[in-house]
Amino acid sequence: MSENQNPQTQTDTATTGTDQPLTTTTGESVEQTRDEWREYEFEGESKMTVENLDVYYGDDHALKDVSMEIPEQSVTALIGPSGCGKSTYLRCLNRMNDRISSARIDGTVRFDGQDIYQDGVNLVELRKRVGMVFQSPNPFPKSIRQNIAYGPEKHGDLDTGLLARLLNRSDEEERDRLVERCLRDAALWDEVNDRLDDNALGLSGGQQQRLCIARCLSVDPEIILMDEPASALDPIATAKIEDLIEDLSEEYTVVIVTHNMQQAARISDQTAVFLTGGELVEYGETDQVFEDPNSERVEDYISGKFG
Ligand SMILES: Nc1ncnc2c1ncn2[C@@H]1O[C@H](COP(=O)(O)OP(=O)(O)OP(=O)(O)O)[C@@H](O)[C@H]1O
């Protein structure tokens, strides 16, 4: 499917697979479990609303009837065993799955109330506002400064022209202010401010990942999607990323996929548990999900009985 096509128009005839109630291994109905957590009410506004989302890769039904609200300015963790659809779900939130030719998507994803799968959505703008940080740090093979300035320059955000002149600032000063702000917000400024023109590939893995977060911030996102952002890092670098995520959630809405349940428990406000087969089995406040889950399957998963 090309990025310019509306996936919904292609999937109108897709079956949802929800005609029959799904039964868990413990005999508990998934629908009964969902009834409990669908009542989950969080404080504040919903930034994203996902309704009845199904994703198929060819004949493989990877996500089944997922509905979930993502509250603004908080951390939402997505956990579950390998292959349960966490990354697939994350990629639906900024239409990265459009790049996978076999992917078909059915359902609704609203960002600030707007359906991101409707015709005419500008994908470049969407992905600026809903940024993404990947598992392995992937800085450009350019200087630290250029890594941050590249996006805003490409999108024309730094070409402030009249305003910059009125403020008696050159474009270069504007750029450097932006670079400093993003590096500070990504907790990297103190470590790199004396070598902004060095190649970013010379940074440590943890520094590279924080640079990628700074790069994501440079285009002014509202939501930051993170797909296992610390899985390639050592414990010290991981702790820095975790602190950073908590700080970022004061201003941004963060959605993070993690295999590390302790990490989810430490940094997230709410946790969604996906289990094998692409079902969202439980969603709620993190403390409640970890300490008193509604679903026996989730309890078994969290206590390490499987997964
Ligand atoms: N590009 C793709 N093409 C075909 N099938 C895919 C593709 N990406 C994922 N899948 C399939 O979709 C299902 C969900 O995969 P996904 O990567 O979303 O799970 P995950 O929970 O993120 O796994 P992991 O924790 O191992 O990264 C799996 O069966 C996987 O094989």
Automatic annotation (TrEMBL):
One of its GO terms (biological process) is phosphate ion transmembrane transport. Residues 1-27 have a biased composition (Low complexity). CDD domains: ABC_PstB_phosphate_transporter. SMART domains: AAA (SM00382). The keyword Nucleotide-binding applies. Keywords: ATP-binding, Cell membrane, Membrane, Nucleotide-binding, Transport. InterPro entries: AAA+_ATPase, ABC_transporter-like_ATP-bd, ABC_transporter-like_CS, P-loop_NTPase, PstB-like. NCBIfam families: 3a0107s01c2. This is Phosphate transport system ATP-binding protein. It comes from Halorubrum trapanicum. The lineage of its organism: Archaea, Methanobacteriati, Methanobacteriota, Stenosarchaea group, Halobacteria.
